[in-house]
Design brief:
Length: about 500
């Protein structure tokens, strides 16, 4: 018999009886007893549940070349803990090439139905054992995290302290996170430029160069303000404070807000492109007609870009939307600047854009909106109670319950935030604190909007004042909450399309 030995250990399960040395000694001794010929040996240090392993692939190449008669392993589960499809593929490859599976004392002929049946039973048992091992491991890891003890490979800025079960920052690498935060938030650099700056100081602890991915993971990770968070397939999200903080949670939140706001304002190469950034780049726009997100897209040439607020074409085609609003920003850019200037000039001019005074009917309308929101929140909470009853009765799977519960809670959160803002607005009106003078005090930061600001600085200023906006065909509503977190709308008129003369058969610019 020509034999190939296959040895495997799992990084998750280093049992003594399955050590590579022990496997080699026992199998070679068995070959000697049987007077077989050892052709080759193959080793994998991976899970038995994976078909694609270097050692196993090399073994199957030898099988298909007709080089052996037997695959010998210490136990069949060293060869396979595969799912049914992968196991059938492995068996078929061996069967077609007349190769048997052997363990010390057992020879399995895959052309024999009884042998195949026994082999299949062994693989099913191996699969079950593997699942049980994984479940126990994950159960133990979840419990560790609940107890405030970390697990897993940390970022390379940290080392694990076995006594405290916490991750301590390496003294020589504490500078990295504040360095990245400063360049990203204060210097407004992109990932590429930050990685270049890091490489000027030092390579990574592993001796490799910094790259954009490493920078991005450090900006996104909660570990650096102390949190280890794990999402499990049970639907649970468990988090604990296990890392020595290298930034504050406030800084982390600022970083995520900056990531959301920044969008595509930096080129792929990471160079700052602040000159031609549109002032609404950091304002989240939605459509007043269909409620979908509005994109700020660039057309024209790089030195003289044309900006349009419009729906994404691919999304519209994919989901069959018919709303095709597309407005060149030249139709309202000057009006935004004029509106800010007028608001900061006098109360009379401000009234053209902002509702400052409220009569009894308008106050009643506001109260009615508040009442409707309160009822909607109450109905959603009742839906949560009914959903829980259905789940507890066994008529709803946990995964579906978790998904629906999450969706309803998200709606409640949004509506509660809106309700809180409307209540603050009503309180301000009732207390007569909602006046032009108080509004001017908060809007004053925009008084230098027409000075020599870069495109990025202007976008940052407008984004701070107006984080949200609603686009209609004839008007743009910018929403500010700088005054006591009360939503205040500034209505900007949209002028007629100045490019109608371009609308020809061969060339069309949407207005």
């Amino acid at each position: 018999m020509r034999v190939a030995n296959y040895y495997r250990v799992s990084t998750q399960l280093q049992e003594k009886k399955f050590s590579l040395t022990a496997q080699k000694q026992e199998l070679k001794s068995y070959i000697s007893q049987k007077e077989w010929t050892l052709i080759d040996e193959f080793i994998d240090v991976e899970s038995g549940g994976k078909l694609k392993k270097d050692g196993l692939n090399a073994l199957l190449d030898l099988v298909e070349e007709g080089g052996i008669d037997v695959v010998l392993c210490i136990e069949q589960d060293r060869l396979s803990r595969l799912d049914t499809v992968a196991w059938e593929y492995l068996k078929d490859t061996l069967r077609e090439n007349k190769v048997k599976i052997a363990e010390p004392g057992v020879l399995i002929d895959l052309d024999n139905e009884d042998d195949v049946f026994i082999s299949d039973i062994k693989n099913l048992i191996a699969q079950r054992d593997k699942r049980n091992i994984v479940k126990k491991m994950m159960r133990g890891k979840r419990q560790r995290l609940r107890e405030g003890k970390g697990w897993g490979q940390p970022p390379f800025e940290y080392k694990y302290n076995r006594e405290t079960a916490q991750y301590e920052a390496k003294p020589d690498w504490k500078w990295v996170i504040p360095f990245i935060d400063d360049l990203y938030l204060n210097e407004q650099l992109g990932m590429k430029m930050i990685s270049d700056k890091l490489n000027e100081v030092s390579k990574t602890p592993t001796g490799k160069k910094w790259n954009e991915h490493l920078v991005q993971t450090r900006i996104k990770s909660k570990a650096f303000h102390g949190i280890q968070e794990k999402n499990h397939n049970t639907g649970d999200t468990i988090s604990a404070f296990v890392y020595e903080p290298l930034r504050t949670e406030e800084t982390y939140n600022r970083l995520q807000e900056e990531r959301t706001n920044r969008g595509k304002q930096f080129s792929v190469a990471g160079r700052k492109n602040t000159k031609n950034i549109h002032m609404l780049k950091r304002t989240y726009l939605t459509c007043g007609h269909c409620g979908r997100k509005i994109n700020l897209e660039t057309h024209g040439i790089k030195s003289r870009p044309l900006y349009y607020v419009k729906h994404g074409r691919k999304t519209s085609i994919k989901y069959g939307y018919t709303c095709d609003i597309s407005i060149n920003t030249v139709r309202f850019d000057a009006n935004i600047m004029k509106a800010l200037k007028d608001v900061l000039t006098s109360e009379e001019l401000a009234k053209k854009y902002i509702q400052i005074e409220y009569d009894e009917q308008e106050v009643n309308q506001l109260k009615s909106e508040i009442k409707e929101l309160e009822k909607s929140i109450s109905d959603l909470n009742a839906s949560l109670d009914r959903l829980l009853d259905i789940y507890l009765s066994g008529d709803l799977k946990k995964s579906k319950y978790t998904e629906k519960d999450k969706t309803i809670n998200a709606k409640i959160k949004v509506q509660e935030e809106t309700l809180a803002k409307l209540n603050r607005k009503l309180d301000a009106i009732d207390s007569s604190s909602f006046t032009y003078e108080s509004l001017y005090q908060y809007m004053e930061i925009a008084k230098n909007i027409e000075t020599e600001l870069t495109g990025l600085e202007r976008a940052q200023l407008i984004g701070t004042l107006f984080p949200k906006g609603i686009v209609y065909r004839d008007k743009l509503i910018l929403i500010t909450e700088v005054f006591k977190s009360i939503p205040i709308e500034i209505t900007i008129p949209v002028e007629d399309d100045p490019y109608t003369w371009h609308h020809t058969k061969n060339f069309k610019v949407h207005g």
